[in-house]
Q: What sequence folds into this?
């Protein structure tokens, strides 16, 4: 039996479920030595608040970084944003963590987001206007998409130690991306912002200046070899795999096109472990809130403007994603998330303290919707309401888009009385999911996390 314990933390919603909080807690509880980021890029936003009031929103560093000695591993295929990582390090220093870059391993195979990816991704979103996908504006999707179309132009983290190679790729990338855009934005109201991003693609000196800046990161965190990654994942003790985003935003299982270019599936965790020759069993824990939330565009059937008073100190409605919305707990989306995520070992639930002040939250148990093809949903034979949404075949984005259209026009049906308290919610959640709720948080810090069942 392996002496390394592997545990993944997977969001079951649209993000903002508490992955940062539980990563911080479990690093302390289990003495984890490594937090692995296995998917996504700099678009993550995992909040950790300490009992003394310090706070950080983790984007690329693992959310266990407040715990001394915990190492972050950015594993392939994570997409690295080097200059954003330097900015995040500066913020962590302000919060009292002055050795974050000394505690990070970055796989040299990781793809790199550049200023050109970021600018092009923002321009595409500006062109979409009211039909925007909900991009975070940091270039992750553009990096992935451009790499598919032009694999020879992919810039990897290991390339940054060879400035001549990196500069040649950057210039070719800049020209290729620039050729895809005209001078005018399709949405005239966004022309000023569009022009600012276009100027980045027109700047022939940007690549060299950006490379000079990344040299600071390379000096402190040189590319890690495959052997170094494998060694880290075989160290005795606990390794946490911290998922970015949530499974309802998964590139293949979310509701296209309002998704992320990243997979939040346990198979993604397994792929990283297997690549390192680590074959120990992985425990998979699902994380969710006591109520639904979503940033930006995309379906949220139980969205209720009357819940906007619920405090969200770290989730504003500004920025590239746009409005932050709140909704009632949704049994159909929960069952869908559990189905596409595969077998889990238990659940962790955040924001259970909401029931101290909110007495109107109710479970959505069905949708009222117009005629819909049988391959995207199931209906209750008595009421005719939609009682389940059905995933399509793997990589069937057309099916996922049809699911999104269904959810966008669905009217939620709420059954029973409002949820009485946190204990009632947990009991109902366990009955719906068939899984034990192991931990629940009643506040923003690790001290507010409670063990609800025996935690190994």
A:
């Amino acid at each position: 039996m392996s002496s390394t314990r592997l545990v993944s933390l997977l969001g079951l919603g649209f993000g903002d479920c508490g992955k940062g909080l539980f990563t911080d807690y479990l690093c302390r509880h289990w003495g984890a030595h490594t937090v692995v980021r296995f998917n996504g890029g700099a678009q993550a936003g995992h909040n950790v608040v300490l009992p003394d009031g310090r706070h950080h929103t983790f984007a690329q560093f693992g959310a266990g970084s407040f715990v001394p000695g915990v190492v972050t591993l950015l594993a392939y295929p994570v997409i690295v944003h080097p200059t954003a990582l330097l900015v995040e390090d500066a913020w962590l220093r302000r919060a009292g963590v002055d050795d974050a870059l000394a505690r990070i391993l970055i796989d040299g195979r990781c793809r790199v987001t550049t200023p050109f990816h970021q600018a092009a991704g923002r321009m595409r979103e500006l062109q979409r206007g009211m039909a925007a996908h909900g991009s975070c504006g940091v270039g992750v999707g553009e990096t992935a998409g451009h790499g598919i179309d032009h694999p020879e132009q992919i810039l990897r983290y290991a390339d940054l130690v060879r400035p001549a190679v990196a500069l040649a790729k950057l210039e070719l990338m800049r020209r290729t991306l620039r050729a895809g855009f005209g001078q005018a934005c399709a949405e005239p109201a966004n022309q000023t912002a569009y022009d600012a991003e276009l100027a980045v693609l027109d700047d022939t000196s940007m690549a060299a200046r950006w490379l000079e800046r990344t040299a600071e990161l390379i000096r402190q965190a040189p590319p890690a070899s495959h052997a170094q990654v494998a060694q880290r994942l075989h160290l005795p003790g606990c390794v946490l795999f911290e998922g970015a985003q949530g499974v309802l935003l998964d590139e293949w299982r979310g509701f296209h096109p309002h998704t992320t270019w990243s997979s939040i599936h346990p198979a993604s965790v397994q792929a990283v472990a297997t690549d390192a020759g680590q074959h120990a069993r992985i425990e998979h824990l699902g994380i969710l809130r006591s109520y639904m939330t979503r940033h930006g565009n995309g379906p949220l059937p139980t969205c209720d403007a009357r819940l906007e008073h619920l405090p969200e100190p770290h989730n504003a409605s500004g920025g590239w994603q746009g409005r932050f919305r709140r909704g009632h707990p949704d049994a159909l989306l929960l069952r869908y998330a559990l189905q596409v995520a595969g077998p889990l070992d238990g659940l962790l639930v955040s924001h259970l303290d909401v029931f101290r002040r909110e007495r109107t939250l109710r479970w959505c148990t069905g949708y009222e919707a117009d005629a819909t093809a049988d391959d995207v949903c199931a209906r209750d034979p008595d009421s005719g309401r939609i009682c389940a949404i059905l995933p399509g075949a793997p990589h069937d984005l057309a099916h996922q888009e049809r699911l999104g259209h269904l959810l966008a026009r669905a009217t939620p049906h709420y059954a029973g009385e409002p949820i009485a308290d946190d204990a009632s919610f947990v009991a109902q959640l366990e009955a719906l999911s068939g899984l034990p709720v192991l931990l629940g948080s009643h506040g923003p810090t690790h001290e507010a996390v409670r063990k609800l069942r025996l935690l190994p």
Observations:
- Residues 163-178 form the longest helix (16 residues).
- The radius of gyration is 22 Å.
